[in-house]
Amino acid sequence: MRFRPKLLFIITLIIALGLFLRLWRFEELFYYAIDEEKAAYITSSLANLKHFPAAGHPSSIGFRLGPLFYYLTAPIYRFFSPHPLSIGYLSVAASIFSILLLYKIASKISPKTGLIASFLYSVSFLNVIYERRGWQLSFESAIILVFIYSLLRLIKGSVNYLFPLALSLILMTQLEVGLFTFIPFSFLVFVTYQIKPHKKLLLISLFLFIIANSGLLIFDLRHNFLNSRYLLNYFRRGNHVRIAENKPLTDDRSIYLAHQLIPATLARTLYPSASNNLAIEYANCPQYLGFKRQSLPDYFIFSISLFLIYFLYRSLRLMKKKDDGQRLLFLSALFMLVHFTAISLYTYLFQGEMAEYYLLPVFVFFFISLSQTLIKLPKYLLWLSLIFFAYINIQPLMTAENPYGLNAKKKAVKTALAAIDTLSFSLESFQTCWYSGGYRYLFTRAGREPVRSYMDQYLSEYYTPDPNKETDRELIILTPELVGENPAGYEAYRRQVISTSEHLGTFGAMEVYLR
Questions:
Q1: Which of 398, 427, 456 is the last residue of a domain?
Q2: Residue 297, in any domain of the structure
Q3: 355 and 465 together in one domain
């Protein structure tokens, strides 16, 4: 390929902009919640050589994936720092790799398409804030792009790319349940293009896949097939071995339905109209999803839906094309179709609760599809569109706040421990969308753990609480809602706490009391 200094300069600027946006006020705005907290407990124990897990932490349905992510990130904790920000910086590095690889892959359509796709990915407010989190989902795009690049090379006959394809698939199936859609997607692509992998490489890949997931079998054998029962019982009613029965997706919960969440989330990758409050942006409780949906014009949601239908219709017809760019468009459309179908079955058939982050795997394909459409615009209109896109996506981040951010939580913990001194204490709260927000691990990291806490029901497998021991003090953290009304009973509980406790301070939105 001929060296093009102009292209190199532009993609360097895009990467620099992406890095700046992902590191802007990084610690101040950093989001730290229960998923990061569970991962921190597992990874810390592994890094300190105290426990070698056979499975990861439970998902929302109780089913556990493999622990590979924790083994890969444990060296960061052991040789650098178990600080919550450590994995956050690693996820930022992965996102920069994603920008570069997206440019390379989308350039198979045209260099201009590659530049536009990487620019959209680099600047999109919703994409940026998800890649600023220190959790496993921040690495999804990088692994997906390696997978797609390997798949394109396999289609062209480069059999050795089966190995990186298999490794990326192994990683994806250990990061998030939503990435399991890449399994049927892979099958469809292999059948469609009649890919005949080298037998030796296929056997090695299958062996690696089995080895990587063998921990789940060990976990099941140790725990009377608990993990398998959680998975199977999710799809059957009346079984006690499950998290809880799914509630009907009606009223405010209808926002979880596929036809609501899919276009709304993809629209928000382009137009972040809801708020510059990052806590609200991350929230997936129904009132917050509804608030974010209502902030988007109906015509914009409708336009995104029409665009998706149009793109799927046009691109799925490119199946037999031999050009890499055309194949990429077909693969993008095919994955979107598979993923949207899975989400539809999950929400309509099983009434499963959704979240915006279940659509993260679609983001790179959506940006590719949109870029391929934007290059058809007149040059002046294209420039105006990109400048407008940059403004409306960068401005909210520059003025962002996070009342449930890591800094505020650390200050709350530090103030509380100073007031408690050497006395024993318990940790209490009242359930809102924010009460399971990473507080328990911060006490562990500070070297002073509560004897028991309201988080023990979620985290006690990682430490040993003493539910019967008397404590000297009771620490209460109140986490009010930021949208809509607080849950029933919250205000009465708050009044009772205020009347019987010392107010240690308000940190962001968190109120801390000691009694």
A1: 398
A2: yes
A3: no
Provide the percentage of residues in the chain whose pLDDT is more than 90. 65
Q: How many domains does the chain have?
A: 2
pTM above 0.85, yes or no: yes
- Domain containing residue 308: 8-398
Q: Phi and psi of 468, rounded to 5°?
A: -100, -10
For 64, 241, 247, 456, 467, the CA distances from 217, given in Å and listed in that order, are 11, 18, 30, 26, 32
| Dihedral, 164, 167, 168, 170 alpha carbons, nearest 10 | 160
Q: Is residue 3 part of a domain?
A: no
**pLDDT at residue 116 in the model:** 97
Residue 438 pLDDT > 60: yes
Quick: pLDDT tens for 401-426.
Answer: 999 999 999 999 999 999 999 999 99
Q: How far apart are CA 233 and CA 245, in angstroms?
A: 10
Instruction: Say which residue the tokens 């981040």 belong to.
Output: 397
* Average pLDDT taken over every residue of the chain: 90
Mean pLDDT of 473-491: 94
Residue 6 has pLDDT above 90, yes or no: no
Do 317 and 361 have their domain in common? yes
CA dihedral 318, 319, 321, 324 (to 10 degrees): 90
Single residue among 398, 431, 465 that ends a domain in this structure = 398
What integer pLDDT is reported at residue 497 of this predicted model? 95
Q: What is the 3-state secondary structure (H, E, C) of 278-336?
A: HHHHHCCCHHHHHHHHHCCCHHHHHHHHHHHHHHHHHHHHHCCCCCHHHHHHHHHHHHH
Q: Which alpha helices (H) appear in 25-139, and where do they start and end?
A: 26-29, 34-47, 68-79, 85-106, 111-123, 125-131
**Token pair of 220 as six digits:** 């099941």
